[in-house]
Amino acid sequence: MYPQGELIHLARHKRALRRRLARQRTECAEAAGWLLRPVAWVDRALTHCRRVFPLFNLGARLLGLLATRAQPARFRVLTALFRWGGLLLGTWRIFGAAR
Q1: Nearest to 80 by CA among 62, 64, 58
Q2: Runs of H (alpha helix) within 1-99
Q3: pLDDT less than 70: residues of the chain
Q4: What does each C-alpha distance from 98 to 50, 86, 89, 91, 93 come to in angstroms?
Q5: What was the pLDDT predicted at 73?
Q6: Cβ neighbours for 68, distance < 8 A, ≥ 6 positions apart
Q7: Tens of pLDDT, residues 39-65
Q8: How far apart are CA 82 and CA 71, in angstroms?
Q9: Cα–Cα distance between 56 and 53 in angstroms, integer?
């Protein structure tokens, strides 16, 4: 059907194409990894914040209680923010996730 020389030429061309495709795939994977590095950093930061949030919430409530007992008239807004801020933020996150 095809002469032997043409088949050898096509086989060489096929090998060259496969090598070029393999090289382009690795270059594309490296570029994607480089571009996604900031996304990975943000993901790690969000994961860390989710771990720390319950401790922050507890600490803010305790500060609110202490500020209420220490100087109730002086820190009304700050006290209310510490006392109810964690609850409001948690409720906001629940309703935001339900959408």
Answers
A1: 64
A2: 4-70, 76-98
A3: 1-2, 64, 67-76, 78-79, 82-83, 98-99
A4: 18, 18, 14, 11, 9
A5: 60
A6: 75, 79, 83
A7: 889 888 888 877 777 777 777 777 767
A8: 14
A9: 5
The first and second tokens of residue 5, run together, are: 């020389």
CA distance 19 to 29: 15
Residue 75 CB contacts under 8 Å (≥ 6 apart), including other chains: 67, 68
Spatial distance between the Cα atoms of 99 and 24, rounded to a whole number of angstroms: 41
Helix (H, G, I), strand (E, B) or coil at 3: coil
Element (H, E) at 1: none
Amino acid 30: pLDDT: 93
- pLDDT at site 29: 94
Distance CA 21, CA 27 (A): 10
